[in-house]
Write a structure and sequence with these properties.
The complex is a heterodimer of chains A (about 250) and B (about 650).
Chain A (H helix, E strand, L loop, with lengths): L3 E12 L2 E12 L3 E5 L6 H8 L7 E6 L2 E2 L5 H6 L2 E5 L10 H11 L12 H8 L14 H14 L4 E5 L7 H17 L2 E5 L3 H7 L2 E6 L2 E6 L1 H4 L3 H19 L1
Parallel strand pairs in A: 3-8, 3-9, 6-7, 7-8
Antiparallel strand pairs in A: 1-2, 1-4, 4-5, 9-10
Helix pairs in contact in A: 3-5, 4-5
Chain B lengths: L1 H31 L6 H17 L4 H22 L8 H23 L13 E4 L2 E4 H23 L1 H11 L1 H6 L4 H26 L7 H15 L4 H21 L5 H15 L30 H21 L3 H27 L6 H19 L3 H25 L4 H19 L1 H4 L5 E2 L15 H22 L3 H11 L1 H6 L4 H27 L1 E2 L6 H14 L5 H15 L4 H18 L4 H16 L6 H5 L13 H9 L1
Helix pairs in contact in B: 1-5, 1-8, 1-9, 1-10, 2-3, 2-4, 2-8, 2-9, 3-8, 4-24, 5-6, 5-8, 6-8, 9-10, 9-11, 11-16, 12-13, 12-18, 13-18, 13-21, 13-22, 13-23, 14-15, 14-16, 14-21, 15-16, 15-21, 18-21, 19-21, 22-23
Classes of the chains: A alpha/beta (about 250), B mainly alpha (about 650).
Chain lengths: ~250, ~650
């Protein structure tokens, strides 16, 4: 088994009386694409934010390569290789795409080993922004904008990239492009943790999924197994959706 | 011990007035995120109106009412005529407030003169209890201020208007969806806040005299209280104002009156450093740095190399031509002065153009540089090089400290902290008389060193030296932007939280930017000392810092902007033969007009005008034209971007 990059132990997040995440144990292993799925309000995004220190957990611990990092500052975690790109984080919007990537490249941690595939023109080609390099980031259509967001995160040379709903609002074509990009990233050695609503995307792309329901972890395993789990179908997918997916695959 | 009782009583009375000011500030801020710098001047206006009416024989009550109405009306006018247009950008609103402050100050001076005046007390006499004397007037102020604040509480909590105000405060969009007229609520908040300032003014005037230029000082006190309580938090204000009022009275009573400003500015800086959300705010503010991001201003190169070169040459030659053309040495020394200003503007640009943080502390940094050099030269007699060698690192440290405080604050707080820093430095130079000679100023006993055969004793050689430094600062800034550090700062400007999330130490970057700005500022400050040969604290006061901000905004983001704008700023009033008060009035008006009409500044507006003219003249379908517009070239030259279409429809 490959190295565990990120581990959350008993991660609990409370907002007042609401328990958004309830003692969730989760890990991300190097080289995989881990998906976190679950119905609306099941605490997926909250879990991701807790793991990435954007909103540290109320209880429980987060460990990065075996070292406890609970409550670390976001920038410190990023310098250690864990970068989160959220869908509402947006980009460096007032500058051109070229400049935005240059800015991101400059913000990367000092002394970190630089992956040649994630620098300069190769990064641009990887995220498919060649055609819009001189466009203002704020003028980009959503699909490009998401890829710029991922490009900016990649420029920080992450070992693990956490993505919060990267496919939200994208059309089918843009979603397929996103999937291709993430699969390429995995091949390049960037581990990906992803939360999204698009089941087709998640099932076809992830190596492993964790299903959350009402803040608790329900099941985890390979997506093809998980979607057939009766508990998952009952809690989340609904019978008809489950059969629809089966028919598809 | 009995004296303590007296101080406590006086402190509580003063605090009730500060509470009125702070409630007004927070009422407006809560709804609009706007800090209105002219707010304190509304207070001054009320004092003058009340005094005039009472002198004319009007009873106190009616005079006070009229003053309150006058303040409310001016608040209403300023909202309807000015702030309404900057609601989507509180940042511009803040600068408009500065402009309005300058205008109202000079107008007050023109109408009522420069003397400090007080309002005759409403009630005479008082009661003694032990050694403590309770003047009836002070009791009245305390009771009235308490009643008004309590009434406001009830209004906000119980009435329909209050509910609408709170709804607009919580979420303007949602409030307008359920039928709240948010625009009217903003007007209500402005009028009510200004009227409160008017009432506070009348009361304050019965306690101590007020002059035409006291508005800026009063607003800082109001801010100190509002910050202590947490901006937008009405219940915290009452506690905060009592703390502040008593603290201030104790400082004045047991220390010296000159120490009060240290207390005011110290409170602002310490509170922001320790508890950036205010003492009584449970949750720290979450809004991101109140910084200018480019907001869609394209940085795409639109000009050919030749044009850029010509522009650069014009920018270098313009000051030289003007210096050589103006015949008299008086005007020449003004051109020299304007270049000295420009150096400070470039120093500010090192922070503003990179991080987007607007700092009103350039005067403070320059003062650290100039005064440390002055002390070295006057008291130790070590000469120019030692002065420079000491002044630059000292100012870098001061800048870094300022940057440290700034990096701790978010939102509007950081503007306040820079303002407080600047005011604090001025106060130090005023108070440390042994070193700085206080108001009388330091007179430099020596001149610039001889380099080779150049002696730098005449205006011309000094001018070229200063110009060289200004050009170095300008080109240095241009060279600095594409460096790794420069880009990191651009990341802070464009999206601070994103920069942080990909690993940038944002705080450290800001400290670095301010330190760099301090270095440039120090060199300019030392040159100021050695060319002007005399420095006084007011050379670097808050007004000076505001002037530097005005020039930067006037000039806009461009290489030549600061230099051109400085010359306009320094020479124009001289050519028009304006006295300082008229100058201040003019600059206030100018600042407001620039923000409303040319928000990107004067020089960029000229450049844009030139670009438009050129594209009108050259209508050829150049293939680069599509790429030039900052969009992906979607097709041939005939393809027009949506914004082009809109532009054509407008014209």
């Amino acid at each position: 088994m490959s190295e565990v990059l990120l581990r959350g132990a008993g991660v609990t997040v409370r907002f007042g009386a609401l328990v958004a995440c309830d003692s969730v144990d989760i890990h991300v292993a190097a080289g995989e694409i881990l998906g976190i799925i679950g119905p609306n309000g099941s605490g997926k995004s909250t879990l991701l934010r807790a793991l990435s220190s954007v909103h540290p957990p109320t209880r429980g611990g987060v460990f990065w390569r075996g070292q406890e990092v609970t409550g670390w500052k976001v920038d410190k975690l990023a310098r250690h290789g864990l970068v989160m790109a959220s869908q509402n984080q947006m980009v460096f919007s007032g500058v051109t795409v070229r400049e935005a990537l240059a800015i991101a490249h400059s913000c990367r941690p000092k002394g970190k080993r630089v992956d040649e595939a994630l620098v300069g023109e190769r990064l641009v080609a990887l995220v498919g922004l060649d055609a819009v390099l001189d466009a203002l980031a704020s003028d980009l259509p959503l699909g490009y904008l998401r890829r710029l967001g991922i490009g900016i995160a990649l420029a920080a040379q992450p070992d693990l990239l956490l993505l919060d709903e990267p496919a939200a609002g994208l059309n089918d074509f843009e979603t397929r492009e996103l999937k291709a990009l993430l699969l390429t990233l995995r091949d390049l050695g960037v581990t990906v943790g992803i939360v999204d609503h698009d089941m087709t995307l998640m099932v076809s792309m992830c190596d492993r999924v964790v299903v959350l329901d009402a803040g608790k972890k329900l099941v985890e395993g390979p997506p093809s197994v998980v979607v057939k789990d009766p508990r998952v179908i009952e809690a989340y997918l609904g019978t008809s959706m489950g059969t629809a997916l089966e028919e598809k695959s | 011990m009995d004296l303590l009782m007296q101080h406590l009583f006086n402190g509580v009375v003063a605090s009730s007035v500060y509470m009125l000011i702070a409630v007004g500030i927070t009422l407006v801020f809560g709804l609009t995120r706007l800090i209105n710098f002219a707010h304190g001047q509304f207070l001054v206006l009320a004092v003058f109106v009340a005094l005039d009416l009472i002198t004319a024989g009007v009873p106190f009550v009616f005079a006070a009412l009229a003053a309150v109405v006058a303040a409310g009306v001016i608040g209403w006018l300023s909202e309807r005529l000015l702030f309404r247009f900057t609601m989507d950008n509180p940042y511009n609103g803040l600068i408009i407030g500065l402009g309005l402050l300058l205008v109202l100050e000079s107008a007050a001076f023109k109408i009522w003169g420069g003397f400090q005046v007080g309002v005759p007390a409403a009630l005479d006499g008082g009661a003694g209890l032990g050694d403590t004397y309770f003047a009836w007037n002070r009791v009245l102020v305390l009771v009235m201020a308490g009643l008004v604040t309590a009434g406001l509480f009830v209004l906000l909590a119980r009435t329909k208007l209050g509910a609408q105000l709170r709804a607009a405060h919580e979420n303007p969009v949602a409030a307008s969806h359920v039928g709240v007229n948010v625009g009217r609520m903003v007007t209500v908040a402005f009028v009510a806040g200004s009227a409160l300032a008017g009432l506070g003014g009348v009361f304050y005037g019965t306690l101590q005299p007020v002059g035409a230029f006291d508005g800026a000082h009063l607003i800082l006190k109001g801010f100190a209280v509002a910050l202590l309580g947490g901006l937008g938090n009405v219940s915290g204000l009452a506690k905060a104002s009592v703390l502040y009022g008593i603290g201030e009275t104790l400082v004045a009573g047991y220390g010296r009156a000159e120490y009060v400003p240290f207390f005011t500015y110290g409170v602002i800086i310490v509170v922001l450093l320790v508890r950036p959300g205010g003492l009584f705010e449970k949750h720290p503010p979450s809004d991101s740095t109140f910084a200018r991001s480019s907001r869609g201003v394209a940085h795409v190169r639109r000009h050919s190399r030749v044009e850029t070169l010509l522009g650069g040459a014009a920018f270098v030659l313009l000051p030289i031509v003007i210096f050589e053309a103006v015949g008299t040495s008086r005007l020449q020394s003004l051109v020299l002065l304007s270049v000295l200003y420009a150096i400070q503007v470039y120093a500010l640009a090192y922070v503003y153009e990179t991080t987007g943080v607007l700092s009103i502390a350039q005067g403070g940094l320059m003062a650290v540089g100039a005064y440390s050099a002055g002390v070295i030269a006057v008291h130790l007699g070590l000469g120019f090089w030692w002065a420079l060698l000491v002044a630059v690192p000292l100012t870098v440290v001061a800048g870094a400290l300022l940057g440290l405080v700034v990096s701790r604050c978010t939102g509007h707080y950081l503007l306040l902290v820079t303002l407080a820093f600047s005011a604090l430095v001025t106060q130090v130079t005023l108070t440390a008389i042994d070193l700085t000679n206080g108001d009388n100023g330091l007179i430099l006993p020596e001149s610039l060193p001889v380099i080779g055969s150049i002696t730098f004793t005449d205006l011309r050689s000094q001018f070229y030296l200063v110009l060289l430094v200004a050009l170095l600062a300008a080109f240095g800034l241009r060279r600095f932007k594409p460096t790794r550090f420069g880009r990191q700062l651009a990341g802070v400007r464009e999206n601070e939280s994103l920069a942080r999330s990909i690993g940038l130490r944002v705080g450290r970057a800001k400290v670095g930017a301010f330190a760099l700005s301090g270095a440039v500022s120090a060199v300019g400050g030392v040159l100021y000392l050695y060319t002007q040969t005399v420095i006084v604290p007011t050379s670097f006061d808050t007004i000076f810092s505001i002037k530097i901000v005005i020039i930067l905004i006037l000039g806009g983001i461009s290489l030549a902007g600061p230099l051109v704008a400085s010359m306009v700023f320094v020479l124009l009033p001289e050519l028009l033969r304006l006295d300082p008060v008229d100058q201040q009035f003019l600059f206030g008006v100018l600042l407001i007009m620039i923000i409303l009409l040319l928000p990107h500044g004067l020089v960029p507006a000229l450049i844009t005008g030139y670009s438009t003219l050129r594209s009108r003249l050259i209508r050829t379908g150049h293939p680069a034209a599509a790429a030039d517009s900052g969009r992906p070239a979607a097709g041939g030259a005939d393809v027009r971007s949506p914004s082009d279409l809109v532009r054509e429809e407008i014209s």
